[in-house]
Amino acid sequence: MAGAGPNAPSRLVPFRRGSLWGYSDQQRRLVLPLRYDDAGPFVEDIAWVRRGANFGYITPDGTALTPLHFTRADNFRRGRATVELQGQTFQLDRAGNRLTAPPDSTEYAAETDFLEQGDLVRRNGKVGFRFSVGHAVVPAEYDEIRDSYHGLLFVRRGAKWGVINQKGKLVLPLEYDAIRATPANGYAFPIIEQAGRFGYLAADGKLLVKPQYREAQPFVGSAARVFTVGGQTGYIDTRGREFFEE
What's the superkingdom here (predicted)? Predict the structure, then answer.
């Protein structure tokens, strides 16, 4: 089975109708039938699924990679996935075999440099930014500036956050309570929070999905898991389309 990067797009997206889960293509056409109680995204061509209290893994053609017998099953990352079985926690390889060697710790080292695009400029207790490429300068009028690694800056004034692009232009107004990006998915599609609701940003720093969900998880590959205000669970794709229906 050919490998795929952890954030490579999958042609299949977890799809929920009512209480049952299957997988659809990018046009929301059902490909794998609705027969699971929960389902995860395909990562490295493997997805976790749940029936009752038991988890297992499947491949894109619906073939079982493992039995449905785990009490926990995480997404694959760098050829490994953490599972729990009979009170024991361990990792599997992409063939479904139990691993005994620990992962290379350098592969999971946290990235701590949040200002790789230039330098902070401080003046009178405020911060601005000078980009290392080009001539754009962000004036020192913010209380905090963070680098998102995609040509965007997250800026805070008081309690509210917004986004500035590489040209120094404010592309998302300072109206949001939080903006979060994670190195686990390459800082793609940051999550925004406003008045207790969550949404996502697009690559240009503008809104992909307005804050409307009770909870929003980071994108994994081409899908992100969300929880509606009504308590339902489903996935959206990188265009913000919902892959669930009641």
Answer: Bacteria
DSSP letter assigned to residue 183: G
d(CA 213, CA 228) in angstroms, rounded, equals 5
Instruction: HSE, CB side, 13 Å, CA atoms: give it for residue 214.
Output: 8
Contact between residue 7 and residue 185 where contact means Cβ atoms under 8 Å apart: yes
State the pTM of this model.
0.86
Residue 224: which H helix or E strand, with range?
Answer: strand 223-227
Going from the C-alpha of 112 to that of each of 6, 62, 116, 142, the distances in angstroms are 20, 39, 10, 21
Q: What is the DSSP letter of 242?
A: B
- Nearest partner of 140 among 132, 131, 157, 128, judged by Cα: 128
Q: Are 57 and 96 a contacting pair, CB within 8 Å?
A: yes
How many Cβ atoms are within 10 Å of 177's Cβ, its own excluded?
15
Residue where the block lists tokens 């190195």: 183
- Structural contact between residues 123 and 140, judged by C-beta atoms closer than 8 angstroms: yes
User: CA 121 from chain center: how many Å?
Assistant: 31
Q: What are the structural domain ranges in the chain?
A: 13-108, 118-245
Instruction: Determine the average pLDDT of the residues in 51-55.
Output: 99
Structure confidence by residue, pLDDT tens digits, 68-119: 999 999 999 999 999 999 999 999 999 999 998 766 554 444 443 345 678 9
DSSP type of residue 102: P
